[in-house]
Amino acid sequence: MLSNQAGDEKRTSLHGHWSSRMAFILAVTGSAVGLGNIWKFPYIAGQNGGGAFVLVYLVCVIVIGMPVMMSEILIGRRGRRNPVATMELLGKEEGSSGNWRWLGGLGVMAGILILSYYSVIAGWTLAYVVKSATGVFVGATAEEVGAEFGGFVGSWKAITLCHTLFMALATFVVARGVERGIEQAVRFMVPALLILMLVLLGYSMSSGYFGQGVAFMFTPDFDKLTWGSVLAALGQAFFTLSIGMGAIMAYGAYLPEETSITGASAAVVTADTSIAILAGLAIFPLVFANGLDPADGPGLVFQTLPLAFGQMAGGMFFSTIFFVLLSFAAWTSAIGLMEPAVAWLVEHYNRSRTQATIIVGGVIWLIGMGSVLSFNVLADTKFLAGTLFDNIDYLTSNIMLPLGGLLITVFAGWVMCRNSTSDELGSSGTLYKAWRMLARFVAPIGILFVLINAVT
Ligand code: TRP
Is the distance from CB of 344 to CB of 84 less than 8 angstroms? Predict the structure, then answer.
């Protein structure tokens, strides 16, 4: 069906609109920049051997991440509803089927599952604000910082408290709604985080091991690269950009008509990738300077950074500010993770926004208890990818997000007619052709290829 909204009344969203183009970019950047950049990227890169992984990750960001993000925004803006309803509406409108709503449903599920463990880690950052401010790390040795971390996550009560507090904070902001809640939080957080990363970078450059850190990150050793680590790089690209689950689609639904989707996507991808690379450059030299293991896992930043701050002049102050900012970054991401589920409950079941948010927050909190226990009581209960935490992480980042991204590009590239997409992207020139090539061929085939090779 050839459908073009022009002429009809333009759709508007139930949940309000961004007040400006900048507000949209800030909100998407706020969702993208989070624990994925500063906590996850360094430890996943460390576990997968560094250089070659980083290279594959960068390629994935550019040739797959960018077109998927553009596809999500354009679908979201065209549908102007929650991801489930948008996919159903556009599926029918484009002459395919309302069953595309299941793709929206997959995203709602992915958001809930990701936030369930994300909130646990974000809870750690809250605790580290207090630990930093009370001088726990001042002058501490690597062993002391390691023992502090081990003792903390080993206590299920302590980390349950933090997980609960973080979910309460996230639920509070989401309940307040799109404009008042999200925009304000991001406006100062991203620039401030960037500045602090530069301070840390300065410190790690003076550690004497900077060259070794750079070599670890940028010297690709392809012998170490397995299909498993290629999939991890692809999954990390999806995770860090917040794509593949309809979150960006939900944000796109609140985007004014005239905003350039390509420009906004490029800005977000650049900001997000720069912060991840900066985090790696700050962290790996410290890992080598202190004889730590880059493959140490989820505790990596919670051990290297406090150690560095503890030895720096003014470290107590910087450390506190750093964990405050990281908590903020996690907070603005948590909002994005909840948005698809909340928008869906509001529209589909006619719930008030407050009610919907509390329900979603409660469910996520409960699932998250599984990840809380994965670091202590159930630490030795391992199956498939490891602990329950490891499995939820693997299932979401490495399976659900790439699969979601694959279907999103198939929808935007093959199901939607050319007029619809060029109308949204606002051009038919070279840029449009490049997007269409990537969305129709490179992204879906690339994702499928990696998934098949890694899983079989
Ligand atoms: N991008 C976030 C981070 O790097 C995590 C994330 C994944 C996310 N998917 C999302 C955030 C969807 C908001 C919406 O920390």
Answer: yes
